[in-house]
Amino acid sequence: MTASQTPPASAGRLIGGIALALTIAARTQAGMPQSKMRGGLACRERLADAEQQAANFPQDAEALQELAVCLLEAGQLDPAMKAADQSVNANPRDGNSFLLRGMIDLRRLQNDEAVADLQKAIALDPGDAAAYNILSSAFLARGQLPEALQAGLRAIERAPGEASYYDTLATLYARMSRWEDAIQMLKKALDLNIENRALAYTHLGEAYLKLKRFQSADEVLRKSVAIQADDPGSQLDLGDALLGLEQFSSAAKAYRKAIALAPDNPKPYVGLSLAEKGAGQLDEAADASQRAVILAQTDPAALRALGETYLQLQEYEIAAEALERSTSFNTADPQTLFLLGDAYYHLERWPDALKTLVKALAFDPKNAQGHFERGMACLRLGDRAAALKEEDALNGLDVAQAATLDVEIKKADRTPAR
Question: CA 138 to CA 26: how far, in whole Å?
Fold first, then answer.
């Protein structure tokens, strides 16, 4: 028997190939970058041999599964599905065939079909941790978070030493905004030597950023950058961590690296604008924010950065225009509303300032500057009673600003009516 006539690999070796394809499928569906997984090149090199084996043994489910794995990893989804369908027909009692079909369904964004195939795989082999793991991703894609969590936990129960399953759960917890749980899952994945450590460090840093734990984010993102210095996302996240630590020069350096790696992404320009503003380099901040807006004219963050910079430059008309555009795309961002209210305040557009600050303070009622400016707007519009209410609110937030507003109220009392 020649090499091309040798029967296909054992199920044990095949599961390794399926697990590899499984991880790639799960990451792709979750919108995460595909990792440079060990064995990817080898699988592509095996494609010709897998095709020959399937041709030699057209009724052998394992040969067809091996072919489907190689085709899936090569991104040839329709041929991969054809091979998976043939493997199901060859042995409808083999759960691996349904598992493969489920993975291909998921890559084709056919989430309902994926759930059905993966449930068949589990029914045939209830101990298959890989099937539960990819089922978790399928439920996540359908927005069924409780079901996704249950499937993910079952995967870990069956294979507690598989690092990629903790990564899947981390993705789910991130979708649920359960950042502490996501952090624990990513730490466990790293402890188990997950293949793509750089990506795991990046996701861990992003979770820390969500919790504003900037020092921890800085530490793990530096590890990510040390492994993959050419990844713009990691450089961007590192810049955000350094910005949170008010290390403005270092943040600007990280943002510039991100820009060099991905010059068409507006986000690092937004970060660079904030870093330059923090360092007192207002002209450079304006340049960066203008570039961000050029790249993304409807991006509220870019427009907010532009408006904030021009507020610092005391160019209030330009600031107000940029911030108005920002709020038109995101009406529920209190930070932008406070900045816009501040621009109107300096322009003495009192009705606009009052209306905007009312909205902003509904989101953040403890913002002292917002109460002060709203009190001043009320005073300028002749509503002394409302101004006194703002003074009362300020007494519990900022005594100095309360005293300043009190002075303005008394000054208005002494001003003769026109």
Answer: 8
Tens-place pLDDT, residues 79-135: 889 888 888 888 888 888 899 899 999 999 999 999 999 999 999 999 999 999 999
C-beta of residue 356 within 8 angstroms of C-beta of residue 368: no
pLDDT digits (tens, 9 = 90+) for 149-201: 999 999 999 999 999 999 999 999 999 999 999 999 999 999 999 999 999 99
Tell the CATH topology of 264-328. Answer: 1.25.40
Structure tokens at 108: 């084709």
What token pair was written down for 107?
A: 């890559």
CB 18 within 8 A of CB 5: no
What's the CATH superfamily of 331-418?
Answer: Tetratricopeptide repeat domain (1.25.40.10)
Q: Does domain 1-195 have CATH number 1.10.150.130?
A: no
Look up residue 150 and give its two tokens: 């249950």
**Nearby residues of 101 by Cβ (< 8 Å), 6 or more positions away:** 81, 84, 85, 88, 113, 117
Q: Are residues 19 and 130 in contact, defined by beta-carbon separation less than 8 angstroms? A: yes
Region of poorest pLDDT, from 97-101, 293-297, 363-367: 97-101
Q: Is 187 exposed, middle or buried (0-12, 13-18, 19+ CB in 10 A)?
A: middle
List Cα–Cα distances, 25 to 174, 200, 217, 409, in angstroms. 18, 17, 27, 65
How do the domains of the chain map onto residue ranges?
Answer: 1-195, 264-328, 331-418
